[in-house]
Design a protein that fits this description.
- It contains six helices and no strands.
- With 118 residues, the chain is mainly alpha-helical.
- The chain has one domain.
- It is globular and about 50 Å long.
Length: 118
Amino acid sequence: MAYLNAFLCGGLLCALGQIIIDKTKLTPARILVGYVVTGVLLQALGLYEPLADWGGAGATVPLTGFGYSLAKGVEQAVAQQGLLGALTGGLTATAGGITAAMLFSLLAALLFKPGDKR
């Protein structure tokens, strides 16, 4: 059942993004930023935790999950370190994902010849 929930949750998030791309003039970059901000806001309101519990990887892997991780990291760091945690918590919580993205991007650039499509 966990696989089905993850598929449904992730699929709904992706389908919503595709509908926004098709029906509005927003650029993909703005939609991506909107997803991250939405994840932060939903976590701040206490609504993303139940979604993540139900959807599992379907809720935590997309960009809304990145925003959720940022907000959750800040929340935990502020509880432990006070106001300084607001500056360090988000980066600490998402350091693994950011590092993986950078390393895989570097690997892709080394293996394949990046450049403009002509």
